[in-house]
């Protein structure tokens, strides 16, 4: 049997990038996947391509009413939520002095507040089945320093995951964070950026950047019953970068 047979999964930021890769793998493993994203055109096109077990819902992850709509629509279409993958996020690489208050608040809203709203919104649905897995995508910058704003939000995701794991264990709901390192997405593997990434890869113990599918494999593990005794933990996918 497939590892996620008939599990109902919500994945945010799933219209493209790693969210799309997560969705494809979960569907391959038998799941029913709700893809959410602010980009309705790409999201709907992808869901149509993926078939009947994929549903797209336009979603502003910073809006509490949108979250309530996503959960209720998921339940109506597929049933109670088994897994939430809080994948949506943005990056920012400005210095402390160059970052405006509006920019700072925006990255916290998308990267941090959305995770709080997502967890809060799906718990009542998961409690109906007395089980669940919440997977919060952080970053290696949730473990070590990086750009202001982005690092702050990713450290927060790590802490929120631990706090929620302790609170929700009594309901059979597990909460973990995933910390990817440098991932070979189309956005960074082109032009001058590609050269910079390839040079940086030489400093990674495994001497290469990760493929998106390698992060998705970790998401699959945490979504499945294979990780039934893992909660409140960090799962690092960085080729040994933070071990140095």
From TrEMBL:
Instruction: Report whether Oxidoreductase shows up as a keyword of the record.
Output: yes
EC id: 1.1.1.47
Matching entries from SUPFAM superfamilies are given as:
NAD(P)-binding Rossmann-fold domains
Broad enzyme group: oxidoreductase
InterPro entries given in the database record: NAD(P)-bd_dom_sf, SDR_fam
User: Highest taxon of the source?
Assistant: Bacteria
Mind telling me which residue stretches traverse the membrane in this protein?
none
Keywords attached to this Swiss-Prot or TrEMBL record, sorted alphabetically, are: Oxidoreductase
Q: Which GO terms describe its molecular function?
A: glucose 1-dehydrogenase [NAD(P)+] activity
**Family to which this protein belongs:** Belongs to the short-chain dehydrogenases/reductases (SDR) family.
Report the protein name in the record. Answer: Glucose 1-dehydrogenase
Give the source lineage, highest ranks first. Bacteria, Pseudomonadati, Pseudomonadota, Gammaproteobacteria, Moraxellales
